[in-house]
Amino acid sequence: MKVKDRVVVVTGGAHGIGRALCERFHKEGAKTIVVVDVDGAKAHDVAESVGGVAFTADVSLEQDIRRVIAETQVKAGPIDLFCSNAGVGFTDGPHWTATSCANENWQKSWDINVMAHIYAVRALLPSMINREDGYFLITASAAGLLSQIGDAAYSTTKHAAIGFAESLAITHRDDGIRVSVLCPQYVDTRLIKKMKRIAESVDEIISPEDVAESVIEGLDQETFLILPHPQVGTYMTHKTANYDRWLDAMRKLRRTLIGDGVTPL
After folding, report:
1. Hey, where are the domains in the chain?
2. What is the pLDDT of residues 148-163, one digit of tens each?
């Protein structure tokens, strides 16, 4: 897909990767860019800078997503590309247990990192199928292909997001629906501040603008898996070739991060 002259919606569009996507789509000549974020003031600022439209919305609420989609279709016409980009993480740190994330944060992770994608697709799929055209970009993470040390809720829900994207691509490609899943590793966003030590010990931290460039390339090629860090593909190969060896390597990395610390119970 070429973004030029398209109607594009970006959730989580006020900051980080979402903002960079909005700016890049504007550069590509998108017809209308709809910036959606729980931070309405910042969404308005981004929309103003790209000549777009802003919505304040909580993507964990299906009615908010339906409202955004319905009002966008009235104001701008059919949505060509929906970027379900909003995400959340509650990093506990590498020294905590796999279940130490609080129940309410597990639920928020599920609602935002998984259900928000489902809500958007559910609202848009009938009209996209009717015209046999539509594109979903789902932002997951390399954590959904590999894992994230110190944040079991993040890794688990990002795995689920990729599973849903696969199901969407398998079930509806013959209906004219295209799907890409975006899986960066470490990006210089607000979230990275919580896990900078882990990030710096693994691989390069790239900019949101680098991610946006990878997205443009991936959309042009209609590639399902968009990897701004190409090495993630190699790590996936290692994981599937020998799962036990990969788990040993991840445990070694965790020990390196926590030193001689002992996991508290």
Report:
1. 7-258
2. 888 899 999 999 999 9
Distance CA 127, CA 98 (A): 41
3-state helix, strand, coil in the chain (%, to 5): 55, 15, 30
Whole-prediction pTM? 0.92
Question: Tokens in use for 86?
Answer: 């909003």
> Which two tokens mark 36?
């959606």
Six token digits for residue 128: 């996209």
Structural contact between residues 141 and 154, judged by C-beta atoms closer than 8 angstroms: yes
Q: What are phi and psi of 59, to 5 degrees?
A: -70, -10
Give the CATH H-level superfamily of domain 7-258: NAD(P)-binding Rossmann-like Domain (3.40.50.720)
Q: For residue 177, what are its two tokens?
A: 């629906």
Q: What is the pLDDT of residues 73-115, one digit of tens each?
A: 999 999 999 999 999 988 765 557 888 889 999 999 999 999 9
Could you give the residue numbers annotated as active site?
154
- Quick one: which of 256, 251, 258 has its CA closest to 94? 258
Sign of CA dihedral 54, 57, 60, 66: negative
Residue pLDDT, tens place only, 155-209? 999 999 999 999 999 999 999 999 999 999 988 876 665 555 555 556 688 999 9
- What are residue 187's DSSP bridge partners? 206
**Would you say 9 and 34 are in contact if contact means Cβ atoms under 8 Å apart?**
yes
Length of the chain: 265
Among residues 218, 117, 140, 124, the alpha carbon closest in space to that of 175 is found at: 124
